[in-house]
Design brief:
The protein has twelve helices and 19 strands. It is of the alpha+beta class. The chain folds into two domains: 221 residues, no CATH class; 302 residues, Beta-galactosidase, Chain A, domain 5 (Distorted Sandwich). A hairpin with a 4-residue loop joins β11 and β12. The two termini are 28 Å apart.
Length: 551
Amino acid sequence: MESARTFLWLTLGALCMFLFIEWSDQSRSVAIDKKPEISSTQPPIENVSDAQFSSESFQENLPSISTKSNTGSPSAVSRKTETINLSNSVLSISVDTRGADIVSAKLLKYYPSKNDQDNKVDLMYVNDTISNFHRLQSGLLSTSGEKSPTHIEKYSLTSKGRNKLTFVWASDTTRITKTLTLNPDSYLVKVVFTIENMTDDQMSYIPYYQLVKDNVEFERSMFDVESYSYDGGIIFDGDSYEKQYADDLIEEPYKKTHTNGWFANIRHHFVVAVLPAFGVEHRFEAEHDQAANLNKLTAISNSSITIGPKQKSETSFEVFIGPKLQNELTKARDGLEVSVDYGMLSFLAKPMFWALNKSHSFLGNWGLAIIFVTLMIKAVFYRLQESSSRSMAKMRELAPRLKALNDRYKDDRTALGQAQMELYKREEVNPMAGCLPLLIQIPFFISFYWVLLESVEIRQAPFYFWLDDLSSRDPYFVLPLIMGVVMFFQQKANPAPADPIQEKVFMFMPVMFTLLFAWFPSGLVLYWVTNSLLQFAQQWNVNRKMAAEKN
């Protein structure tokens, strides 16, 4: 089998593989038809009242802390609330007095697109209170079943500082101070409960935290790479995370206990993560409400907070609301960086991102950093690639003789195979010698693909000239066309298949790849163009050297 054919099939197989991986993550999601229809995950129009009742119950139900506790049935509370804003240079949040929880969050330095810089990226929102929102809910549950400061109770704002909001909830026996702190230039919100026992008896509370969010459904489009990214909940168990699909939760809600775990709602480039106290065992739950099309992620502490008579005690948790910037994620919590999904080859992708980030630090442009890292990868594999190129050059020399054999034995495939093997043996050529170097390189190519696709650092980053956003497609298709031209000349430099039908098929490959890459983010295409140019240059150089050696 000719090395050229092997290379092209391996390349095509690699592309199909990582496209399949990307699409399969969303294979359980059903695209929404613009025409109204009844589905298992979207409430019909005539059942809006049912959806509203289900949504309200789903939001107000309290976590269960024991089989004897009736905390799952909340008491009636006032629905009149107000929101208070708190912001720094990168994040703006709105906190509702009901529960003193975050109901809205905007990223002040990120925009939906390059052409829409009047708006900010909303990571938490309330577009309607039934089925289009993403909000935090947190509170304390009394172990004795007494009235508790839950997420449905109304708090009073007592002070508003530059980076801090303080709320108070009080009963006849307890006074709860809930403080939300947002430090300058930070995406991390710290929430502290201060519990004051005003009685002569001991009391205990169990903290809980949850995110309630609409189950996102939208049409996939080959013109929008984000439409294939996972948008939903994940639960981290201390080592790895598990995606929470609505269909799975309908069949069986998630209930597991983890220490050092956390949960989050993620989307392409962004994350909202709730980080319970480190080192404390929590019961993690996930469930889906079909009528309102809502998902809920919950963590309930397995350790109660005990407060002695006339004493005070504190408990806290943190919420990360922001882009998946590696340094910010690691700074917030060890392990949070796994929310950047590099796929099955993360062990290769992480050092590649490190190299890309370091390159950007001294080059100052992500496009130049992509080119530089591609050069480094090619340098590492130079000897392997040279071996492959020499094998291809030898096969090119044998191409006329292989074609003659094909014409002679066109009606006898067995004899053709034997004749080809005798020719390879006589000329001391191994047709598979070019395959191993290519196989070794493919995982690195795929890893770098994931790095470029998932790294928010490259989102909307400009290159030069017309390429003002490396995370979107080339608006004029210049890079894909260059890539197609380079692939065409690569084929000319490699041995042609002996079979004329195969030769015609492979001549069409550059056109097919050009059409495929036309819709890829320009940063990915820039990487592929650079890699193809370097590979073509190396093949040309090897051909030139071998010709000189013969002379």
